[in-house]
Structures are given as C-alpha cells and as structure tokens.
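For the sake of clarity, the format in which proteins appear in this thesis is described at this point. The fold follows as a row of integers, each naming the local backbone shape at the matching residue. One such record is shown here in full, so that the layout can be seen directly:
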Amino acid sequence: MSTARGARITAQGWSFEYPGRSAPALCDVAFTVEPGALVVLMGASGSGKSTLLAALAGTLPEGGAAGELRVQGPDGRPVRIGVVRQEPEGNIVMERVGDDVAFPLENAAVPADRIWPRVSDALGSVGLRVPLDRATSRLSGGQQQLLAVAAAAVADPDLLLLDEPTANLDPAAAADVLAAVERVRAVRGCTVIIVEHRVEAWLERADAILLADAGVVVGLSRAELGAHLAQRPDAASRL
C-alpha cells in the first residue's frame, strides 16, 4: 500500500445554516480526519450528512457557514477532489467510456500524450475492462459506477467523496464498487469519505466514523460506535 498522501480534514466549531431556514443544518461540528483514512459518514435521513459532504466538496451556498472547516492537500498545495454520486447515469458526461475518463484530464489541460495511458490505468485499477469506445449507455448500473470511480480517480484526487454509490446496485455489483474504491485508495493514498446506508461492509474497512444526528456530528472509532449508540437509544432508533 502506498504512503498516505491524501487530504487532512479539520473542523472546529463549524456550523451551516441554509438561506431562509430558522435553524442550522449542522452546529458546532468538530472532528479531524487524517490523510489516507477511509471514513464512513452515517446518519438518518435529514441528519446533516449530505450538508457535510457538500461542504467538503465545496458546493454549499455561500454565506451560511460559521467556524472553521479546512480541507488541506499534501505539502500545502490546493486540494484535488473527486466525487461519485448515487445515480450511475448522473456521473456520466460523455458517450464513450474512454472519453468519460479522459474528460477530467482534458479539463486540467493534461498533455494529450499523457492522457490515454492514465485512462487505461484508471479503468484497470477499478476492474472495468471494456473497450475504450464502448458506449456508456451500454454499461450496466454496476459498470457505470465503476466508470464513475475511475473518472474520479484518474486525476489523482487527495479526497474522494462518495454519496451512496451502491444504493441502486445489487449485492454483487456493490461489492465490485467497494473493491474498486479500496484499490484506488491503496494505490493513490487518497482520503475517502463515504455516505452509505448499507454500511456493514464499509464499516469493516473504516478507519473512523462520523455519525451525524440532529445537526451534530460525532467522530468515533469502530469500537466506540456500539457503545455510543447504546447510550443514545434515540439516536440508534433514528439511525
């Protein structure tokens, strides 16, 4: 496994309130995620986990945040972020497999002679072995999510964010996506934050857990999760 070189995330007294709302979606959040960690962000619907994931991706509306939430890239350089969304089709931007993975590199003005070796490497790393000219519309849902992971990983992200990537997949396809994410993290050393309702397999591999509940986020280890929920039966029932 490569040396962890992913993003370091720190939150201190961070809150966010959406425009027109009378109460913050998240309040006084404090936690630290170390570089290269795999973190499961879990919580009931409406608990604030989507708000936190959007904050990490930099897609929240301006003006509603207070406190500090920092995402730091290695060696002080700007952080690179890859995102995989829930809907397989929503991750695809091009009609052919190779073009879809090449798109982030083209946007970053990577020289053309360096793009296609990286595309092939990214597809191989997630286990998607199909021709580069295969139509993205001909892929299964599981293959489309593997394509999304490859497209997110091809630009060597420091932080990989996944928003319920296996929610619409059968168990076999979900296992393929999990294995692909693990390979990407092992090779590239990126920090991974995953939001998922089917959490069992991810929890087995997690370095840490962020539990969102009623506008509060608690950082826990796997060993601490059961004891925390036992002391908070209201939170456990919502989860």
